[in-house]
Amino acid sequence: MIENLLDPASLNNYSNYYRTLLSISGVLLGLAFAGLIYVIQDGFSSFKFSRNMFLEYYVKFGQNLLISLAYLTIIPISALYLSIYPSLLSSLFYLFAFFFIKTLMDYYNQLGYIHTIFSEKFVPQNYGSVRSYFHFIRNLGFFRNLLLLFSIIIFVLYPVAISFYSNRSFQLTSKGLFYSTLLILLYSIYRIINFLPNLFKYTQLEIQSGSIQSNESKEDFTKEKQALKKYLESHELKELNPFETKEFLDGELRLNFFDKRKGEEAWFNIHINTSNSNVFEIHDSVCRYAYEILSLLNKSQVDINTFVLSFHINIDDMKPQTMFFRTTRS
Q: CB neighbours (10 Å) of residue 78?
């Protein structure tokens, strides 16, 4: 059984296949560009909230698809006219493999971000960008992660295994290259077919969350701030809970987010109670905390670009102090 999988049937004439593949990939590349331009320009025109999040999803979706179609265009040309350089063909495959895996994981990461926002799952607050990246993917669940692993095995490792079984080398054989293009072709067709169904799926998700408004209604940022609050909660920002506090020097810190406040900026009040009278230490600690919060806010994908942090600091036997930050993403 394993030998049959590693030594599948081959073609007598690869040249005719690559000529046919070149014409097909050209058509698919045009369809993919047209579909992506439509979705990115007009597909979310009715969305009043969370557009960045869903546009980012289609950007990642499109990157993976276009990398696949570019491979299906470059490889046939190379196989037809540069077949005497098998090492070059192998190098092109491994270069494609790197970008394919990267864009596929970026796509799953963005999918995990959306899934986390619309579920009860979370990403620990102390996770850095790399751990958060993989945790978003993990939040998709066992079957989605299994599908990701299966995709990498089928589309990247399987052609290498076919070649290695034949010549005990990691240099791709003609048969391995043939199956890599055939599998990626089937994958690309499947992706193109899923263009509009995915758009309708996320439109329905927005409707269920109450985030679409008619063009006649006034645009506000209430729903956007609710999405931002969900994002912060998904990162275990415990002090956002009115019944929770965070340790701060020898005292405590409470965070209050005005998600019902009108306006396009996200406003946070931070109340600090401490007995520490060292104002320089307090100042530095406030700046560190502000940087952590603003870094977290900057990674959010809501349509809010201005953030306000207003610190109210109560120190024993001293006059209350304030520190104020207003900044945009840029």
A: 18
∠ CA 37-39-44, nearest 5°, is: 135
Asked whether 172 and 163 are in contact (CB, 8 A), the reply is yes
Cα–Cα–Cα angle for 96, 152, 43, nearest 5°?
Answer: 75
* Measured CA distances, 125 to 132, 167, 256 (Å): 9, 49, 17
Question: What secondary structure letter does DSSP report for 218?
Answer: P
Can you give the pTM of this predicted structure? 0.71
Judge whether 246 and 253 are in contact, CB under 8 Å: yes
Q: Where are the domains of the chain?
A: 2-208, 222-328
Where b means 16+ CB within 10 Å and e means fewer, 254-270 reads: bbebebeeeeebbbbeb
Q: Per 3-state DSSP, what percentage of the chain is helix, strand, and coil (rounded to 5)? A: 60, 10, 25
User: With contact defined as beta carbons under 8 Å apart, do 109 and 190 qualify?
Assistant: no
- Whether pLDDT at 217 is above 60: no
Residues across the chain: 330
pLDDT in tens, 26-62: 899 888 888 788 777 765 555 555 667 777 888 898 8
CA nearest to 272, candidates 258, 290, 260, 259: 290
Strands 306-315 and 246-248: unpaired
Tokens of 63: 């990157």
How far does Cα 296 stand from its chain's mean position? 15
